[in-house]
Amino acid sequence: MPLDNIKNIVLVLSGKGGVGKSSVTTQLALTLSLQGHSVGVLDIDLTGPSIPRFFAIEEEKVRQAPGGWIPVPVHDGQMLAPSRSPSTNGNANGDAAASGTQIGPLSCMSLGFILPNRNDAVIWRGPKKTAMVRQFLTDVLWPPLDYLLIDTPPGTSDEHISLLETLLKSTSTPGAPPNQLAGAVVVTTPQAVSISDVKKELNFCKKTGIRVLGVIENMAGFVCPNCSECTNVFSKGGGEVMAREFEVGFLGSVAVDPMFVRLVEEGERPLYPKGTVVEGKTMVERGDGAVEGSKEGFLVDKYRDCSLAPLFDGIVRRLVEDIRSRD
Fold it and tell me: Which residues form the signal peptide (predicted)?
């Protein structure tokens, strides 16, 4: 079975659309890779496959091989040059950043790689969606992976039911890695309307027996690109209150950073106003020897200079520690 090569499978879920599941999935994958893990990302949001866009590999196509599909590589495992950040001031990755970073390989699979035209609408009934999800889980020839992240559509639809049925069947067969289905990361935004919908997703996890690894509150503020001050445009704290109510872990709040948007949309390396420090890490400053609008380097290399990278580094370390402690 193709899933036999995978040690841990993590679902990224939300009962609400537009909360940034794909953005969170992308940053979880990049951070896991930066921590040296081999990572795969499976996009089962069939009507809105955005993972190819986030990883800047929209023009790529999957290759057919005997027995299935070969996922699209984002980058191979390799050593990155030292980070451009001037200092890390006690950051957990300080020594590694100063001497270079050994990253793990990263690859992706999405319906976006299969459609003849990326603007084509996917108008499928439930049975065809179910068949496609099952095919993604049985016919993708993943290389050996430490983590497979599955980016899901909003709600509790046919895709979710098909996904869980197939995963639970595959991960319970003899020879499957123990506790292979690690659990789910649930994404919300702070507003009450989002929290209300995401509570349904947490109930879905409880009823289906999926362990919730934690809640991430996304869009909890807006980081000004000129002064780096964070303003809580959509309020803050609703995700943490919900996590306490359901007695699940709260992984952290993540703000909207226009520099990350620019990195994804235009491939530009993030640069910040002088004196910007996040999680003890001094960010690369404008005019600090960095080329304005530079598009050189791998996505994972440029992401190291994003203000969200130190936040996700902490989130992922807690996730990995939690998963390992329950193996």
Answer: none
Domain count of the fold of the chain: 1
22 is in an annotated binding site: yes
Q: How far apart are CA 263 and CA 293, in angstroms?
A: 9
Residues near 223 by beta carbon (within 8 Å), at least 6 away in sequence: 229, 230, 255, 256, 257, 258, 259, 307
- Is position 17 annotated in a ligand binding site? yes
16 is in an annotated binding site: yes
Two structure tokens written together for 69 = 């599909």
Backbone angles phi, psi at 13, to 5 degrees: -120, 160
Question: Is there a contact between 147 and 36 (Cβ–Cβ < 8 Å)?
Answer: no
Instruction: Decide if 21 contacts 13 (C-beta within 8 A).
Output: yes
Do 290 and 276 form a contact (C-beta atoms < 8 A)? no
Q: Work out whether the CA dihedral 206, 210, 216, 219 comes out positive or negative.
A: negative
15 is in an annotated binding site: yes
pTM for the model: 0.92
Determine if residue 100 is labeled as part of a ligand binding site: no
The predicted-structure confidence for 147-159, as pLDDT tens digits, reads as follows 999 999 888 878 8
Instruction: Report residue 214 as tokens.
Output: 């934690």
Number of H helices, E strands in the chain: 10, 15
Q: Does 21 belong to an annotated binding site?
A: yes
- What digits encode the pLDDT tens for the residues 90-139? 444 555 455 678 999 999 999 999 988 777 778 888 889 889 999 999 99
Residue 259 sits in a domain whose CATH number is: 3.40.50.300
> Is the separation of the CB atoms in 186 and 20 below 8 Å?
no
Domain that holds residue 185: 2-325
Tell me if 108 sits within 8 A of 38, measured CB to CB. no
> For residue 12, which of 186, 238, 223, 229 has the smallest C-alpha distance?
186
Q: Check whether 224 is labelled as a binding-site residue.
A: yes
The secondary structure of residue 250, as a DSSP letter, is E
